[in-house]
User: Fold these one by one.
Assistant:
Number 1:
Amino acid sequence: LSKEKIFRETCKLLDNRTMYNRMAKSVNPYGDGKASKRIVNALLYYFKK
């Protein structure tokens, strides 16, 4: 990415509320970031049996 492209795309987001909202509310394809905590809790539960 060039500095110019980053600048242009940033300006688009600042000037276009719809585009900004769509970007801000996009779904993370990698989940919510809490997988490791869930795995640890599952392992603790399993091994405490």
Number 2:
Amino acid sequence: TVHPGFGGQPFRADQMEKVRRAREWKAKNNPALDIEVDGGINPKTARVSIENGANILVAGTSIFKSADYAAEIRALREE
């Protein structure tokens, strides 16, 4: 959900269409399939990603640039 290459890039909401299409394919063909979103994940974008079908999220910059890792992880889990 970012341009490939380096961390800390902004989330690209336009990529949620691909996640929705993957969710539809998953429902028809392989319900056990995981849909992972990597890039720009924070508590707000985590919710958007989950609502569109993701069930695995990678939140590197959101956590490691946070002053309080545990608090950021809790915020992500609450979403």
Number 3:
Amino acid sequence: AGFDWGFKLQFMEGSDARFIHSLGLFDRTANEILQPDLVEAYLSLHFPLIMDGGLDLKLGKFVTLEGAETIDPRSNFFYSHSYIFNFGIPFNHTGALAAWHATSHLDLYAGLTRGVNTSIDDNNDSLAFDGGVGVNLLDGKLTVLASTHIGPETVNDNHDNRYLNDITITAKPAKNFTSITDLNYIYDEAADASGYGMAQDFIYTINDVFSIGARGEIGATQTDSTSHLSRKMMMRSTLCAAARSL
């Protein structure tokens, strides 16, 4: 394929919007339960470079690479979200992200953003790195996405980085069975705090209408200082049955 371009605009209105705002966008609606949000607004460019898959470039506001779950509920099996989605990954970025489709099995991602959940305003006027590696094997039956976001996130601090790292493994060993493993590790230099999480989803499709799923997850945080060491551990399991119309 040759050069191509497009764009995406996704807007939402509702109670969930208050949890995913980016800095500087719809800040004045913070006291309302039902709020608007511009989830994504970006220009997409495709360049036929180097390999047959070419290179795709996003410019604007887009959702994060990280994690097994998405803001758009149509991409999620479970109604509830994991600890990792709520505490371990960003929701969105504003900047530029390139995806090089090196082979049919390998994708490389790299870009610069204004930070975690940051758009019009930036609390420290510093850029961050956003990138990852995606692998597609066994005719799509096994996919792995390792992603990272590195940069300063603390207010008025442009040198202490926050490291947000995630690995999502999706396996389909059988036609009706899907396993999704999400591994997460974060570290913040300014707070000298770290955290990790693991979520394991199993989804079984009974037929074209009904599916069942189970999720087990664990998360932990640790804060070190000269005076004390603080640790917190969280565990949770979730069961779900889903039906969809034909």
Number 4:
Amino acid sequence: MPPLRYLGLPLLASRLTIADCKPLLQKIDERIKGWEGINLSFAGRVQLIQSVLMALNTYWAMAFILPKGVIREVEKRLRTFLWKGHSGGGYAKVAWSHICRPKEEGGLGIRNVLALNRALMSRHLWRVITSDRNSIWVEWVTTIRLRSQSIWTVSDRVGSWSWRKLLRLRPLLLPHIEYRIGNGELFSIWQDPWHPNGILIHHFPRGSSLMDLSTSDRLCKVIHEGQWQWPVTTDIDCLTILHSLPAIHGDTDKIIWLLDGGNFSTAGAYTVFSPPEPKVDWSSLLLGRFKIPRHNFILWLAFLGRLSTMDKPWIGNGTGMCVLCGGNQIESHSHLFFKCPFARECLRAVRRRTRFPWPNREWNMDISWAAVKWRGRHVVNMAYRALLASLVYRLWEERNHRVFQQQCRSFLFARDFSGRGCSSTHY
């Protein structure tokens, strides 16, 4: 018998299984199947993944900790739809983990499903940590699950599967939380992480008895008129506690989220579960109001060296030679952009019309040069960025015409493709 549902989500008292998540996978499949007859570009598929398919996943990820098997199935569908346009198997040009990086780190800005699920669920944990009194669920957790314990000390081996999974997010959130001491009425001496050494009961389990304090005592018991006033002790463990006490700030106790200016957000929590990677200098070349998404996607692949050029061992025309110039040069990114005689002729045609300042040395060197010279919001720099994307896109388009359709266009097409390319905003 299928589980009862509320607002499209299963009502379960047990562990969420892959079978329980079939409606999510079916909805994703149905959406993808409905788009199969549409001739979508890569950029169009990226937009649909971000605005439609990820929204379906997010609705479930806000309510449940998704099993890893479900996350793998969701990512498999997103990945194959991006590269093939359907939910079947297909060859991926770029690793999914790289695609899920922010744009400034060389990715496409699609959210990592696992990290997003953890970030969304960490909001529930944050509400318990801060004792959100407007939440009936928090009141229930405090009364039934925690009782006299803190959220930081309650065992993650007891309770439902979802509850245990939620508690295992605590070590990841803790470095980004600060307990700022005021009057000490809200914080537990032994069970809250207010001390630089962490949760005291974990490091000094005998401390409470040696100081003649209870494990449930609040910090206000050792604060008097805004100053620390601990029991006298000679125990070395207790002295370790006393020698590194934090400052007292007065007023009330506060729990502060150290990211996003102190206000907890899912976006900030996402960076906890998906740590930043080094930024790439060429990401600025994909920005600007003149950008054409389908052009930028091909340019992005060219920056990564992931276009299906003939120099790759699993791709080729038997010889690996460039089909644009018909010469004896191996087709590679560096050759296509713009060492190939055909590409150089196109570049000259563009320069005659636009004064396009491309140095045309080595591809990677030229990318770094352009990333420095064309940064910012100046209209000329934005036009140059759009023109580069258009030029790369049209060259790759012509190359594919010759490889797959055996159609050759003359050098004359270079005279007008820059104007045509920069006038369209279609995906």
